[in-house]
Write a structure and sequence with these properties.
Blueprint (H helix, E strand, L loop, with lengths): L1 H47 L4 E5 L5 E4 L4 E9 L5 E9 L19 E5 L8 E4 L4 E9 L8 E11 L6 E10 L6
Length: 183
């Protein structure tokens, strides 16, 4: 009797082991897509952590006045990330949320046009930089005909990474349109 009972236990043990091993194999096969998804997600987060840039106006010149024919801001964009990246340049009028340098109300602010140009005066819309590289470029502020004088304009300048679409470097330009009669 004991032998038969031991034999039955051994057979049951082998069946249990067989089902456990085949069950784990099925789990691995079914979850390979989940494992790949997690791996890709980790790579994505690691990549987004590698995006870093600084966008500044040269000599901290974010505030300036301009005659009606416009002015130029000298900009510096630096890629502090771990790899080569391309940055898309954009200008957005933020008069409604801007604080003027002379504490005048932003409700009277005016809109100006901003154009990005390289050192050879070519219009640009994006800049590609190697890791650690900096580049100088310019923003030409043009005052539209008929714009009120002795008013401020605020423009948010953004350089958005193509490697990390949710990452951007920003700065704000405060431009005062002078009255040519008083100049």
């Amino acid at each position: 009797m004991r032998t038969n009972s031991t034999l039955q236990k051994a057979v049951k043990f082998v069946k249990n082991c067989k089902s456990i091993f085949s069950y784990k194999k099925r789990i691995f096969q079914k979850n390979i897509f989940s494992l790949l998804f997690c791996l890709l997600l980790n790579i994505s987060f690691a990549q987004s952590g590698s995006c870093s840039a600084i966008l500044v106006v040269e000599n901290n010149g974010n505030i300036r006045s301009t005659p009606l024919d416009g002015t130029y801001y000298a900009m510096v964009l630096t890629n502090n990330g771990a790899s080569t990246d391309t940055y898309v340049l954009n200008s957005k009028n933020i008069n409604s949320s801007c604080s003027n340098s002379d504490d005048s109300p932003a409700s009277g602010n005016v809109a100006v046009n901003a154009e990005f140009i390289d050192s050879e005066k070519n219009t640009i819309s994006e800049i590609t930089l190697n890791a650690g590289q900096s580049i100088n470029f310019y923003i030409h502020i043009a005052v539209p005909i008929g714009t009120a004088v002795e008013k401020w304009s605020c423009n948010q300048i953004t350089a958005t990474s193509k490697n990390c679409s949710n990452y951007s470097a920003e700065t704000v330009l405060h431009t005062y349109i002078i009255n040519p009669v008083n100049d």
